[in-house]
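Why should sequence recovery work at all? Because a backbone constrains its sequence more than one might expect. Tight turns favour small or flexible residues, buried strands favour hydrophobic ones, and helices have their own preferences. The token representation captures these environments compactly. In the example below, the structure is given first.
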């Protein structure tokens, strides 16, 4: 039919930002006038067209047409009512694309021997060349040019030998502007035109479509994954049918119709480009690490975005030389286990975090990070949540009562589990039991020297031994500042060793005897040399009050610089803080006076109007104490004030040295003792390691105050203490706990297999610790027999054959014990009490449940106040008083004790003490105020806080214990709710906010009162707005809270999504299917 005759000439159309098509070859028959189809910039809306901000009438104007009378519309288009293009079959060139397509089809019909593949290739070639030409036109006429800039550190490394095709680059960027429907059309053409060959245009189109989507998970970082998921090509029959039913011209029209109707995705072009760069870098990094290449890409095998995050969130511009050397170690490239040791403040954690990110992003494996204390776990969760949000992995907290066993198996995002030693052990057990231990690609252990510290060391040794024995592909990284017998640890962990003496700030060590200060010098005979005399005038009264000259030492640095004073006991901390502020000049009160008043006000809010009188006296001078006698909220407020410089002096116990990072210009050791024990070299190194703040101080100082009588005990040339296995010293939490879980997890089920496993423990390496009377095999035999006698294992150990192959099995009680992490000393007692509780559980209140979940290990060193005991008993309801009778503490016993009468009937003191502690917890849950409860029971608030934390953790353990025993089904729902109440111990409306890492009760109250009542409110909050609305909240803290809330929300959403996918998953074993 006639196309466009008699039409007036029109000006050449401007390039459309939405429809990009190829310029067309001249048609043999005749040249056609230029036509333009409507793009999104001039789409019809309400009878008028919008073009570059102008409105023009529609109908017969420029760029529109009228249908010729009698013209039949082609059927089969997307819109059956109107052919949106009609005669206008050219995108933007001088000739008709659709005419070319028609010619090609005509030739195809004439030549039956020409296959469909050739026809498709011709069209595809025209399209490809056209797009290149069009893009060149756009580059020459566009007003806004976008240049993707990359600095020298972030740039891609291109092989010089690789040819680079400029046309290919133009085509690729041209396709960026195509609507999704047109890209899909190209993909369809590609499938038609190639059988085994993949067309470059289609491949690039596919990548363009993918890059326009937001990168949601590390699994989508590699473009290659998209090709693996592409559908199979059409068969030759389907190709023929497709050409037969609808012509290519119809297909192209259909695609253009879709383009006109499609909505433009509101996605930032800059954001798309950044995400494309990030995905490419992660893909390169993953391939590089898999090939163990020396050239590890932009940032140690990670995308440059990671480097930007360290700069933005941590202020880290570049790594220290030792950190670079450590990350470049051949052993790390080969995924060997590694132990590395440096002084405190040397930057060990940063290296571990980079290795963790490599595992999560590049190798796509889960990671477990084991830290010694709950406070450090919470701090690390807050610090890494921002990285998880930006890089697409989850950060899960396993501390106290928090943690899910087994963890949710994620299909897309990988998880970083941050756990205490005990929770880390339970997590590893659950992964082994569910045969998912191979999902754990990396385990990082901070403070590796804790292997030698009591029952916690035994638990850590058991955890690492199980990982080494059950998963050969899991890498273990251990770090510490104080290691000596590294050879044993290397043999145990099958690890390489790296060490360095680097400190970012020089540390100068001193010792003070009387009024003389000596510099520590290991080259001299006695280990120190004279440095100076103290220059401070002491009155006779001051000399009596401060014989150790602490005031002279601290006033040399405060208030301009910060100072820590380590004291042997908690009481000594409070005494030192009080004594120092009594003799300081009034000028000290003026330093940051407003912030100090705000701190006192904040502490009053925490204590509901109550503040410790010592803190009330010392804080105006910038001084406070720090020990376990503080509540969680108080401790956090004091730490924040010290970090901000509001407080310049902390008198603290040794626990601060291994806890959160609070550095100082000068560290003073009040005495070479921790409690009544003489100071160990390891402890000394931990404490003085806090001296010197990187980026703030040019040097750090430590001063050890020594009395003349202890002078001979201080030997600086002594080596660090060795790290020895505690499996034998801690029998219940060590050896027997290990044997029980080995059989329960089916790691070793015969005496012989258990023997083989023990060789992979630290005890197996250090068999010199064993007594000559018994061999390791005999100790194992005794332990197994003991477990059989307790009813935790079933089987028989031969008296004659120690290597008996008799298979051992675990009993339900044994399984409940190891899965609940219950101390073997109490497992039978717990079972009996829970069983007795079923006979008459008092549910009028939660007092009976609280008794059953009060920790056993807190009753031994405790003595109740009998008058308070009687008073609290009398305040109970009649039903609640029955609880005392049920557990075995009659009212008459309490009354006689309170009145001082003689007791003839013996009552178990452990039960009496446990009931008293359950009264404390019961009152605490009702009043939710640690201060008032501590006063009511005449206890320190720190003890009440510790009781609450221990009870929450133990209740979680009892819950897991009951889940394994069907007879205790009734406890499951009850203990789940009780665990939550004990964990947070606040009013119900504050619990959602306190689930966010780093938000404690005082902060939760502030947030709730400001209108932030849910996790979603916090996740979508603006950090700047939070700072304005919440008192005493820094921008850094606000950002951490928002990131933690986002992470928590992401975890919950992921968990629900996993549950949905699991429900919708089609079973593979449906009866009657092949």
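From this structural description, the recovered sequence reads:
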């Amino acid at each position: 039919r006639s196309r466009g005759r008699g039409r007036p000439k029109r000006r050449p159309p401007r390039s459309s930002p939405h429809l990009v098509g190829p310029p067309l070859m001249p048609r043999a028959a005749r040249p056609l006038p230029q036509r333009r189809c409507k793009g999104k910039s001039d789409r019809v809306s309400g009878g008028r067209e919008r073009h570059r901000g102008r409105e023009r009438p529609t109908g017969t104007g420029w760029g529109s047409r009228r249908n010729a009378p009698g013209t039949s519309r082609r059927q089969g288009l997307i819109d059956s009512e109107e052919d949106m293009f009609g005669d206008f079959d050219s995108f933007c060139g001088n000739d008709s694309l659709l005419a070319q397509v028609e010619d090609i089809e005509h030739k195809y019909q004439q030549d039956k021997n020409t296959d469909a593949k050739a026809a498709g290739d011709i069209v595809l070639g025209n399209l490809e060349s056209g797009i290149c030409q069009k893009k060149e036109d756009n580059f020459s006429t566009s007003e806004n040019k976008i240049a993707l800039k990359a600095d020298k550190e972030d740039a891609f490394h291109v092989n010089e030998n690789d040819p680079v095709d400029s046309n290919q680059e133009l085509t690729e960027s041209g396709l960026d502007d195509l609507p999704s429907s047109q890209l899909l059309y190209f993909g369809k053409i590609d499938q038609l035109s190639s059988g085994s060959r993949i067309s470059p245009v289609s491949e690039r189109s596919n990548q363009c479509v993918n890059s326009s989507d937001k990168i949601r998970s590390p699994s989508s970082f590699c473009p290659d994954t998209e090709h693996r998921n592409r559908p199979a090509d059409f068969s030759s029959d389907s190709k023929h049918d497709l050409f037969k039913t609808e012509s290519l011209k119809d297909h192209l029209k259909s695609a253009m119709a879709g383009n006109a109707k499609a909505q433009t995705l509101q996605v930032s072009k800059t954001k798309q480009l950044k995400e494309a760069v990030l995905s490419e870098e992660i893909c390169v990094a993953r391939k590089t690490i898999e090939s163990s290449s020396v050239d590890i890409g932009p940032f140690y095998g990670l995308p440059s975005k990671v480097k930007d995050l360290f700069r933005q969130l941590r202020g880290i511009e570049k790594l220290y030389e030792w950190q670079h050397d450590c990350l470049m170690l051949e052993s790390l490239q080969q995924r060997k286990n590694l132990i590395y040791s440096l002084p405190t403040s040397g930057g060990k954690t940063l290296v571990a975090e980079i290795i963790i990110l490599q595992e999560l992003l590049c190798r796509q494996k889960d990671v477990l990070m084991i830290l010694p204390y709950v406070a450090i776990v919470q701090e690390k969760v807050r610090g890494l949540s921002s990285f998880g949000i930006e890089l697409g992995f989850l950060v899960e907290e396993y501390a106290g009562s928090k943690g899910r066993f087994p963890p949710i198996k994620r299909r897309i995002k990988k998880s970083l589990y941050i756990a205490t030693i005990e929770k880390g052990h339970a997590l590893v057990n659950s992964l082994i039991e569910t045969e998912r231990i191979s999902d754990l690609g990396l385990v990082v252990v901070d403070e590796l020297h804790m292997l030698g510290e009591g029952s916690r060391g035994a638990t850590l040794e058991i955890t690492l031994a199980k990982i080494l024995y059950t998963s050969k592909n899991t890498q273990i990284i251990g770090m510490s500042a104080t290691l000596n017998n590294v050879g044993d640890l290397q043999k145990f962990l099958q690890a390489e060793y790296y060490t360095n003496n680097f400190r970012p700030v020089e540390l100068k060590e001193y010792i003070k005897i009387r009024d003389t200060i000596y510099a520590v010098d290991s080259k001299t005979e006695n280990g120190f040399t004279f440095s100076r005399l103290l220059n401070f005038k002491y009155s006779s009264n001051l000399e009596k009050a401060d014989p150790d000259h602490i005031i002279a030492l601290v006033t040399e640095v405060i208030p301009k610089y910060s100072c820590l004073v380590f004291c042997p006991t908690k009481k000594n901390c409070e005494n030192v803080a009080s004594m120092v502020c009594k003799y300081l000049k009034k000028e000290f009160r003026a330093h940051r006076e407003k912030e100090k008043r705000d701190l006192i006000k904040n502490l009053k809010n925490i204590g509901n109007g109550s503040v410790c009188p010592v803190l009330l006296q010392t804080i105006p001078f910038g001084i406070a104490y720090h020990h376990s006698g503080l509540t969680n909220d108080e401790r956090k407020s004091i730490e924040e004030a010290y970090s901000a410089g509001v407080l310049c002096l902390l008198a603290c116990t040794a626990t601060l040295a291994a806890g959160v990072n609070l550095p100082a210009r000068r560290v003073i050791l009040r005495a070479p003792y921790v409690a009544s024990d003489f100071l160990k070299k390891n402890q000394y190194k931990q404490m003085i390691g806090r001296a010197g703040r990187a980026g703030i101080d040019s040097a750090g100082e430590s001063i050890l105050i020594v009395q003349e009588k202890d002078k001979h005990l201080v030997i600086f040339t002594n080596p660090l203490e060795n790290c020895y296995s505690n499996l034998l010293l801690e029998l219940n939490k060590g050896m027997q706990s290990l044997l029980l879980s080995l059989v329960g997890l089916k790691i070793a089920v015969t005496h012989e297999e258990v023997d083989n496993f023990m060789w992979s423990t630290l005890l197996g390496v250090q068999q010199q610790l064993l007594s000559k009377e018994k061999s390791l095999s005999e100790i194992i035999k005794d332990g197994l027999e003991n477990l059989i006698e307790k009813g935790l294992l079933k089987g028989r150990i031969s008296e004659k054959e120690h290597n008996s192959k008799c298979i051992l099995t675990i009993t339900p009680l044994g399984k409940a014990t190891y899965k609940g992490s219950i101390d073997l000393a109490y497992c039978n007692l717990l079972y009996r009490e829970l069983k007795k509780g079923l006979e008459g559980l008092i549910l009028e209140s939660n007092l009976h449940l609280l008794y059953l979940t009060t920790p056993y290990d807190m009753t031994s060193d405790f003595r109740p106040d009998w008058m308070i005991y009687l008073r609290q008993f009398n305040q109970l309801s009649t039903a609640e008083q029955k609880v005392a009778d049920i557990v075995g503490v009659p009212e008459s016993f309490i009354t006689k004790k309170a009145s001082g009468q003689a007791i003839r009937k013996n009552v178990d003191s452990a039960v009496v003490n446990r009931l008293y502690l359950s009264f404390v917890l019961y009152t605490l849950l009702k009043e939710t105020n640690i201060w008032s409860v501590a006063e009511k029971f005449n206890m320190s608030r720190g003890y009440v806080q510790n009781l609450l934390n221990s009870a929450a953790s133990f209740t979680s353990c009892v819950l897991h214990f009951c889940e394994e025993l069907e007879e205790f089904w009734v406890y499951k729902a009850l203990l789940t709710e009780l665990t939550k109440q004990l964990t947070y111990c606040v009013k119900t409306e504050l619990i959602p906010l306190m689930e966010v890492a780093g938000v404690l009760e005082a902060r939760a109250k502030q947030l709730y009162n400001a209108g932030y009542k849910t996790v979603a409110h916090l996740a979508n909050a603006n950090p700047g707005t939070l700072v304005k609305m919440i008192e005493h909240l820094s921008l850094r803290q606000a950002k951490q809270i928002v990131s933690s809330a986002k992470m928590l929300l992401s975890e919950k959403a992921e968990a629900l999504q996993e549950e949905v996918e699991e429900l919708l998953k089609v079973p593979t074993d449906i009866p009657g299917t092949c």
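A few observations help interpret the result. The first strand starts at residue 44 and ends at 45.
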